[in-house]
């Protein structure tokens, strides 16, 4: 390479081509799908990463299979394992990652059409993504109800239960249901809004998929709804789904934070991004 060249040879041409698309105004309806890998940098382990992921650490709880801990049928008769890990999973006082800040920057620039998150940590909102741009496909930890009679359960008592690890039970007389955070467990329906928003995915002129193994339906099908020829960009530690198989796909393998920094460099947004993140 020519050391005097003004071209930054460190920027991967695929990343530069995505950045150019955005800079040229060809991508103004960006749809994003995020998963647990965008938040591991904030200190919340994902499910499926070997060793660090939650599923590799559940052996002492004697579950029939790892996903049982988040399966509504299992929870209905054995809620104890969920509460045994709840304290460690509960997102509290965590700082969003720079990847969350990148999403907030897309929104600030009017380029974020919509964000589907599979995460329940709320960090995208903490980073400044407006809530009307986010669909929490798997619900959130901010509220809780009895899984049986759906009665609301007070926040302060839930906090106590999470901190102590004791299962909280419904306060309604005659009901003995365990209380469950309003997180979508396996076997439960997604928010009704999901199907509405899913219909808008083909309108995307660019899709970013960050930090997800694309193993959980129905979010896993969202990248397949993007129109052929529309670029799909995966930023993840590993390949996921079929991203990379279509013309126009770009896979930026590595951490989400490294990936968004590279993109921000290619876009000339790096300082703005770091500033937004510092203020989050
Ligand atoms: P997953 O199946 O655990 O996959 C995570 C993916 O992220 C894997 O492909 C990892 O290789 C990748 N990954 C991990 N760390 C990084 C990183 N720093 N940078 C880039 N990639 C990374 O999780 P999914 O989200 O795909 O599965 C959906 C589940 C996980 C949803 O139901 C979530 O509610 C649930 N979950 C959410 C959280 C959270 O809210 N932060 C945490 C753990 C699990």
Automatic annotation (TrEMBL):
GO terms for cellular component: nucleus. It is an enzyme of class 2 (transferase). NAD(+) binds at residues 36-40, 46-48, 118-121, 212-213, 236-238, 256. Its cofactor is Zn(2+). Residues 8-270 form the Deacetylase sirtuin-type domain. Belongs to the sirtuin family. Class I subfamily. Zn(2+) binds at residues 146, 149, 170, 175. It comes from Penicillium alfredii. The active site is at 138 (proton acceptor). GO terms for molecular function: histone deacetylase activity, NAD-dependent; NAD+ binding; zinc ion binding. The chain holds residues 2 to 281 of 341 of the full protein. Its EC number is 2.3.1.286. The keyword Transferase applies. It comes from the Eukaryota. Keywords: Metal-binding, NAD, Transferase, Zinc. It catalyses: N(6)-acetyl-L-lysyl-[protein] + NAD(+) + H2O = 2''-O-acetyl-ADP-D-ribose + nicotinamide + L-lysyl-[protein]. This is NAD-dependent protein deacetylase. Binds 1 zinc ion per subunit.
């Amino acid at each position: 390479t020519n050391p005097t060249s003004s071209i930054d040879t460190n920027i991967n041409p695929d990343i530069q081509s995505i950045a150019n698309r955005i800079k040229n105004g060809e991508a103004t309806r960006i749809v994003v799908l995020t998963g647990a890998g965008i938040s591991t940098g904030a200190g919340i382990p994902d499910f499926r990463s070997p060793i660090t992921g939650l599923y590799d650490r559940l052996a002492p709880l004697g579950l029939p299979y790892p996903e049982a801990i988040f399966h509504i049928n299992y929870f209905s008769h054995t809620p104890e394992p969920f509460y045994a890990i709840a304290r460690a999973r509960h997102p509290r006082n965590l700082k969003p990652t720079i990847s969350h800040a990148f999403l907030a920057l897309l929104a600030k620039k009017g380029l974020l059409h919509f964000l589907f998150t599979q995460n329940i940590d709320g960090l995208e909102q903490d980073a400044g993504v407006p809530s009307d741009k986010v669909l929490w496909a798997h619900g959130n930890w901010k509220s809780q109800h009895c899984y049986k009679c759906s009665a609301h359960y007070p926040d302060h008592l839930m906090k106590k239960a999470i901190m102590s690890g004791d299962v909280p039970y419904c306060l309604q007389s005659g009901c003995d249901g365990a209380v469950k955070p309003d997180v979508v467990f396996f076997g439960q329906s997604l928010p009704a809004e999901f199907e509405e928003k899913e219909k808008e995915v083909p309108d995307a002129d660019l899709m970013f998929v960050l930090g997800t193994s694309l193993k959980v339906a129905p979010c896993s099908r969202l990248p397949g709804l993007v129109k052929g020829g529309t670029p799909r960009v995966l930023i993840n530690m590993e390949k996921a789904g079929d991203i990379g198989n279509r013309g126009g796909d770009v896979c930026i393998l590595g951490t989400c934070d490294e990936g968004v920094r590279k993109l921000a460099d290619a876009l000339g947004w790096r300082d703005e991004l770091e500033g937004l993140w510092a203020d989050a």
